[in-house]
Structure formats: C-alpha cells, structure tokens
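>> received
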Amino acid sequence: MNSARVAFITGGGRGIGRACAERLARAGFAVAIGGRSRAHLDQTVAAIGGDALAIDLDVTNEASVADAFDRAQRELGKVSVLVNNAGIALSSSFAKTSLADFERTLAVNLTGAFLCARAALPGMLQARSGRIINIASTAARMGFRYTAAYCASKHGLLGLTRALALEVAQKGITVNAVCPGWTETEMLHGSIENIRSATGKSAEDAREALARMNPMGRIIKPEEVAELVAYVASEAAAAVTGQALGVDGGEAM
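>> returned
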C-alpha cells in the first residue's frame, strides 16, 4: 500500500479517534491507527477496509512512537496529517491527586502529542505541507473542579499547539487544537460512573448534569468532532492555524 495522503491517528481504535479515522478514510486518506488496544484497532481497520493500518503504539514511549511512524511511512507513505487524539482523564480533588497520576496524565495527553508531532514533522517539512491536529478539550480553555491534572495537560497542549503553529507557519504546515465538550465516548461513561459513585445520583441524572454544561443541553457526538477534524485537514483550511476550535455547543466562549 502507498498513498500520497496519509493520516496518522493516535488512540484511533474507539471514540473520537475511530470517528476521525473513518471520516478521513472517506476523504481519501490512507489511515494509520495507533493505540494500545489491539482488539479495538483491528475492529476499526476492519470497518474501514482498504488503506488502513493498525499499529501498536504507546505515545508515552519515545521508541514506540519512532517505530510506529517508521512503519506507517514504510507501508503507507509519509504522514501528511497527524491527529493527536490519545488521552486519559482522571478525576479527584487536588489534594487527593497523586504525583503518579499527575505525571501519567501529562505523559499521555501532552508529552505523547509532543513525541508524535516531532516524529511526523520531518516528513511534513520536507514536503512543505502538513496538518497537525491536537484533540484538546474545553478543559484547554477553562478550569474545572476535580480535574487539575487533566486541565493542566490540556492547557499545555493548547500552548504547544500555538507555539508550534508559529514555528512552522511559513513552511506549509498548520497546527490546530480541536476542543470538544463532553462527547459520547468511554471517557464520558467513566465520568458518569465517577459522579454516580461520589454523589449517589443515578447514571441518567449524572449524564444530564454533564449535558447541562453545554448551553445546547446535549452531549457531543464523536462524528461531529471528526467533521471539524476533516475540515482542518483539508486544503480549504490552509490559512487556519494556531487556533482552539470548539465543538462544545457554546460551553467555552
């Protein structure tokens, strides 16, 4: 397999990552999907068919990242679009947030994006063309209680986005952050369970409480996030860079 347009999506086996992989495949990209859950990666590749490749990837491990991008280039071609989607969210009060949890959150959500962007960038610079799209969060633009590590990591990701965007602005490469609100993913389901356990609320009531954070009063669909990613990845968005683009129903303005 070899394609002139290759997208690499981290955490691409489920949720927003899978929706992005499927949408970019429909746009004509060959897609490399990296992640730690082989079963989910294989399911996504089977659903896409064609030029899709599942790659075992730990975004916190420099050697794993290098191997993953080497394989994608060998089998598909140089990566022209990188979607840094891999992420974790842990919830606890600041006083109960352990150093290990804080460092793990930053490692996955921020350092992982740094390592993957660094791996993809040489090919983009050589081609003088590329898109780096970081899946951030409304937590990149706002503060939330009980998520200090997550907010810190996503604020850092937005800072990384803006700094790199300026650095490569004259080299045909754009760097943007897409910032979803609460989205129908396993992360949402975990947050609902945390609320239920901590407060005694029913899962339905917990879900409604999260939906009310969106002025539209609803949960975002992964496919809605993927549509914005597809736009940012397109030639139509050649002048869009360094931006925090919300898909949140007006939650962060």
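>> The chain has a mean pLDDT of 95.
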